[in-house]
Each structure stands twice: as structure tokens, then as C-alpha cells.
Amino acid sequence: MPDTVNDTTTAPALGHLYGVGIGPGDPELMTIRAHRVIQACPVIAHFAARRRQGNAWSIIEDSVTAQQTVLRLEYPVTTEAIEPADYERQIAEFYDRSADDIAAQLDHGHDVAVVCEGDPFFYGSYMYIHQRLARRYPTTVIPGVTSVSAATAAAGVPLVSMNETLTVLPGVMQPAQLKEALANVDAAVVMKVGRHLADIRDAADAVGLAAQAVYVERASCATERVVPLADTAEIEAPYFSLVLIPGTGLDARSRPVR
Ligand SMILES: C[S@@+](CC[C@H](N)C(=O)[O-])C[C@H]1O[C@@H](n2cnc3c(N)ncnc32)[C@H](O)[C@@H]1O
């Protein structure tokens, strides 16, 4: 047993966990705070799909030096045909393993920045790490510019004005559900478009919203694309795309009174 008075083997102070929003794609849309924390943390963790560099990594790579440890957290599955229950299990196990890897660094007293595209708490993958670790370690979440903000700026469309409500929907909803959800919106954003673009277009058309809707792909990136939703029949949408359905309140107000 070590002598408690002369014991020099005490555990180091725990490291600090940071959930860092890094914005929608353009590194210039990273906040000053996010950039400072990324440069200061000895360990950087980022998520990536298999065989891909990872969008988050491409946003921050110029901010990271060779002296920092990089934890690449690679999803075991992406869009392969797989039973939903099996997918859920594999993803939950992956987040458990990722949290364990990050916890090992924090236990050694190393601060860890888990970077996340857009804002960490707006559909961000960081939240699964937060859920597992935030009660055990000192934690700070740094908000980020969301893809929605970047997309509205790219399209040049105000999204909601005055007392309008904004509805955010995932494009992966069943087409009938999506149509029902869109039927009574003032304004909406449909995220996670990908292979669901045609269903989203049909749903918007069915409820009379197609004319005002705009498709935005890779907002703020060099490959950004903005197209009226009605003209997207030939487009094969990537995962990093969304559909904006702006409210009409502002237009109605600025019309000249006759
Ligand atoms: C897992 S969510 C992440 C959202 C992110 N945390 C945010 O704050 O915007 C991924 C979805 O966000 C949207 N997205 C993310 N970045 C985008 C971009 N640069 N342009 C358009 N859509 C984007 C797409 O709908 C994509 O399917």
C-alpha cells in the first residue's frame, strides 16, 4: 500500500471536454472561440464516414498541428442496406466506443475538442458523446453557425418574420407524413435531403409550397449550389443538402397597399 502522505501517484486532474460547433463548411464561418479552443486542445476528435476524409476534418484541418493528437471516429455503417434494429445497435456501440476513447484521454488530464459541423446541439453527432460523458467530466459546448443559417444566406431568402413559426423536418420521414407535416407550416426547413429529394419536392408540390421552396447544397462551401426546388428533377442530392420553405409574411407586408 502506498504511504498516503508521500504518495505521488495521485490521478491527474480530469481533462475538459469541449463540444465545438465549427460551422457549415467555410472555415471562415467558424467562430473565434471555436478556433481558439481547437488550437488550444491537445486532443481533437472528429467523426467521419468510412473511406471519406470527413467534412468536419476538412473544415478544421488547417487549424490543427502535428503536435496535437487526432482521434478519427469512423462510423461503422453509413447508408448501406441494413436492418433498422441492427443499424441502431451498431451505431449505439460505436458511440459507446467513441466515448470510451475520449474518456481515456480526459482521464489522463488531456482536454479534448470534439468538433461538430454546424451547431453541436442542432442534429449534431457531438450530442451522443455529450449524453455519455457530460456528467462525468467538466464540459463546455461552443455553439456554431448552423447549415440553415448558411443556406438562407446563400439563397438570399429571409426565412421567418414577425410572428411566423418555423418547422424543422428530417427528409427521411415517410412521404405521407412529410406531406401532412408541411400542410400547415408558415415556414419550414427540410434537412437530410439526399435520396429523398423527389419525395420532398412531391410533398411541397402537393401542399402548394413548391413555388417558394429552394434547394441548397453544401451551403458556404466552394461547391455550393442553390436551385429552386421546382427545378431539381435532374439533381442527385448529396447528404449535405436541405430545402428551405421561407415564410411569406415579409413579402405580404412589403407589398404596396392599393
Ligand atoms: C447531422 S445534420 C447536422 C446539422 C448541423 N449540426 C447544423 O447545425 O447544421 C446533417 C444535415 O445538415 C444539413 N447540412 C449540413 N451542412 C450543410 C451544408 N453546408 N449545406 C446544406 N445542408 C447542410 C443537411 O441537411 C445534412 O443532411
Keywords:
258 residues, Methyltransferase, Cobalt-precorrin-4 Transmethylase, Domain 2, five-stranded parallel sheet, five-stranded mixed sheet, 19% strand, globular, disordered N terminus, binds S-adenosylmethionine
Structure description:
The chain is α/β, with parallel strands linked by helices and 258 residues long. The chain has two domains: 17-145, Cobalt-precorrin-4 Transmethylase, domain 1 (3-Layer(aba) Sandwich); 148-254, Methyltransferase, Cobalt-precorrin-4 Transmethylase, Domain 2 (2-Layer Sandwich). 31% of the residues lie in helices and 19% in strands. The chain has eight helices and ten strands. Strands 3-2-4-1-5 form a five-stranded parallel β-sheet, with helices on both faces. Strands 6-7-10-8-9 form a five-stranded mixed β-sheet, with helices on both faces. Helix 2 (55-60) links the parallel strand 2 and strand 3. Helix 6 (175-182) crosses helix 7 (197-206). It is globular. The termini are far apart. 35% of the residues are buried. Bound molecules: S-adenosylmethionine (SAM). S-adenosylmethionine binds at residues 24-25, 117-119, 122-124, 146-147, 150-151, 191-193, 216, 218-221, 239-242.
